[in-house]
Amino acid sequence: MGFSRTHSGGPPVSLPVDMSTTLGNAWFPTPIFTASGCASSGKELSQFFALKDVGAIVTKSVMAKPRHGRPTPRMAETPSGMLNSIGLQGPGIDAFLAHDLPWLIEQKARVIVSIAGETIEEYATLARKLRSAAGISAVEVNISCPNVENRGLVFACDPDASRRVIDGVRKTIGGELPIIAKLSPDVTNLAEIAKGVVDAGADSLALINTVLGMVINLDTMKPHLGGKTGGLSGPAIRPIAVRAIYQVHAALPHVPILGMGGVATGRDALELILAGASGISVGTASFGNPTALITIQNELRDLLAARGFVTVQQAIGYAHREEPQ
Amino acid sequence: MSMINKSAVQQVATIFSNKRVGAYHQILIHVGDIVKSCRPGNFAAISVGGDSSRMILRRAFAISRVSENSQYGGTMELIVAPHGSGSKWLCAQAEGSELDIVAPLGTSFGIPTEPINALLVGGGYGSAPLFGLADVLKNRGCKVDMLLGASIGSKIYAPMEGKRSVNSLKIYTEDGSMGEKGRVTESLLEIISNRSIDVIYSCGPMGMLRAITELVAQTEVIHQCAVEEAMACGIGICMTCVLPVRNEDGSTSMLRSCIDGPVMDGSHVQWDLVGRIPEAHQ
Hints:
The structure holds 2 protein chains of 2 kinds.
Chain A: E1 21-23, E2 26-28, E3 32-34, E4 57-58, E5 75-78, E6 81-84, H1 93-106, E7 111-115, H2 120-131, E8 136-142, E9 146-147, E10 153-154, H3 159-173, E11 179-182, H4 190-199, E12 204-207, E13 211-214, E14 216-217, E15 222-223, E16 229-233, H5 238-251, E17 257-260, H6 266-275, E18 277-282, H7 284-288, H8 292-306, H9 312-315
Parallel strand pairs in A: 3-18, 4-7, 7-8, 8-11, 11-12, 12-17, 17-18
Antiparallel strand pairs in A: 1-2, 5-6, 6-16, 9-10, 13-16, 14-15
Helix pairs in contact in A: 2-3, 3-4, 4-5, 5-6, 6-8
Chain B: E1 9-21, E2 24-30, E3 43-46, E4 59-69, E5 73-80, H1 85-91, E6 98-105, E7 117-123, H2 128-139, E8 143-150, H3 160-163, E9 168-173, E10 180-181, H4 188-194, E11 199-203, H5 206-216, E12 222-226, E13 242-246, E14 252-256, E15 263-265
Parallel strand pairs in B: 7-8, 7-11, 8-9, 9-10, 11-12
Antiparallel strand pairs in B: 1-2, 1-6, 2-5, 3-4, 3-6, 4-5, 12-15, 13-14
């Protein structure tokens, strides 16, 4: 297909763009989502825009029990980015299902629930609880957590543990809700881990989680964050996200990717889509700009139209295609 | 769990004036009608560094006061210490510059319905929101005394017009370069009993807020303090600015100082747990 910028040398044509996208069997009206851990459960951002106007709300990763998280300081700003070390503070799955989920459904938002566990069994338990809840579009399985049963080694950095987590979730809700496995970029062979979780039953992949980093405070001359290390996010990591999405899409072209990592403008969202993302999560950009999702969505629509794309689908993975002769 | 300030909006606002006052900058911003919903204790979150900034996070500033003028409309005053790269950028902005601002955010100081004896305690530029609060308390018929402290005299923020809204003002500096040598907590208990203080309103460094809480623990005095924690978003979504706060049932919750604060009841804050992990939920 040809994506000519103009027709017969005339002015740029802007046809209405079909922004809809899918992850597994879940449909979304636009490809712009919140990122888990960067929107809480949506209530605060709803002060600034209607949650139903974006593709989906990906809720903060929830665990089986309520959790305090890590000590402060939990944050350090870095050039074009920030480190965070929250430690999955949250209300626990029961309170989430009783309060947060019904509220989101009332707002007519599409909801992707992100779950996190310390054991393979905890993930399966969480999936079981979600199975009985109505109104969820998909489940994001955040496997960037320390595995307490294996010396705290992060699941996502261990191909075997990653597969076993997804296998446990698939046995519980496979075929009912799309399973999105969220992967860490802090691995040697991302495509291999991606293939492993897809073989185990993941319908989709979320790329990338934050990149592990550290800041040392020059006053105390010790690590600044209470948790010592933290996850780097923001525009500083965007090229890593583009690379990761490109590599995984090349290896698994039929597996839809929820792309994220430093997206702050429509231009950034389009870049990740061209690399192979079917949907885009916007995280840290919302901290600096509560209406970032709406701005990015509008900019993306215009950028797609200006390039002659009439659907988002046509642009997904475009960077991989051979030039038409 | 509390909700985001219902009046919070994001808007582009213009700097009306930017003056240096001692170690600080007094920045007046045209914000229009939102002044109607700003209360003493609320804060504003401002983007810094311009469009191509490498500083991606907003900076939070206490709103020191707001006013409405038939000629200029609603203006908001901030007192900014040019310490970090974000606040230095803001202090360098000229009159007429545009700012991306989200306000009003957070909780506000509780205003009594009865006339009471109030003691306002400020540390450094933490005194800024106390002058707006003093106006409101005076209008309610309260007696308002104020204590200000800082390391050195140039870090005391006490504008002339502000001094008029308090019944008394006492200044302490650690080097003795202005007022009395020492800290605001020096004769706090004596002042409380001599002046029959009912409520202390405080704003300043966390160490000062903690010291006041501990001093008044054995008294009947209510202590409302505006806390200061590093925030990434200011709107309750990043979970970085949490403080351990005691619940009614004795358990501890990590509450967001941007939504459940900045104004909190000092006796509820678990000061000894700040920077630590509370015991696991039972």
